[in-house]
Sugar phosphate transporter domain-containing protein
Amino acid sequence: MVQKRNTLLILTLCILWYICSSTNNVIGKLVLSEFPFPMTVTIVQLLSITIYSGPFFNLFNIRKYTDMSWKYYLTFIVPLAFGKFLSSVTSHFSIWKVPVSYAHTVKATMPLFTVVLSRIIMKEKQTTTVYLSLLPIIVGVLIATLTEISFDMIGLISALISTCGFSLQNIFSKKVLKETGIHHLRLLHILGRLALILFFPLWIYYDMFNVLSHTAIANLDYKVISLLFTDGVLNWLQNILAFSVLSLVQPLSYAVASASKRIFVIAISLFILGNPVTWLNIIGMLMAIIGVLCYNRAKYFARVHKTSLPSYENDKIYQTPLISNGKHYQNGGNQNLLFKQSNLTSTSSMLVM
């Protein structure tokens, strides 16, 4: 009975996550088509994370974050906040310049960036199977690029920069999660708030006066304003739903759900926005997504083979308290089922695209 209830909960969360993500991308495209300010859209999303997260996390008793030294904060948290802002801006820029379906196909190259950057930064070596799984991703994206009717070079470059930025966030946020014992949702809140504080002056300099003089704002176009507000709420909500699913399932299951979500977003965007595509274009998109699934499976089994231990040892590992700055934090703790501390060996962290 309990297992059926958990399965139903996970299925419900996945459906809500897919709906929020696809709606968020479609609304984002509609907003940017009438209101071409990617930095402003990013600022609205960061503001949503900052405003809604605190009260929501307190309501569900999400563990407060541990104190960090200023050196650690400046070394890891500030660069992560910078990366979050840059990745979000370039992601919105790509959605503005190219169709949502193509932008998400390009973002399927994230495993490639993750493997390369992990090799350079963390000196991590992968198995031959993992390297081979990258081939269909590369081929699929190339086919989609060569057959994309609405191709735009700036949009492609923006999508690649965004994907690279999210890959770097994955690598370093995993390190922060392991070393500090901070709850993943609290880290999301910290990064969103810090990115907002750091880049609000930049927004004032580059965007504010243009935004205020834009017809949609000057004439109080409630359609654009409401779309902006909805986009911010949906972006925050899909972050919460994504991490809720992550906390309830195994890393491989989450990776499969995430790849399936990308297919759902592409399909919904093609149906609602109606951008023209060819069969070769669709084949390229599918090949890239299948490549992501192959990569996730290969990475999962490589990790299992490397870290396989008797079950009682695994139990010990997850009962070991995390220690940060002399403070102890028990994994899991008295967390709500939906928002418990996720498996820190997961391949996802701050990534929601």
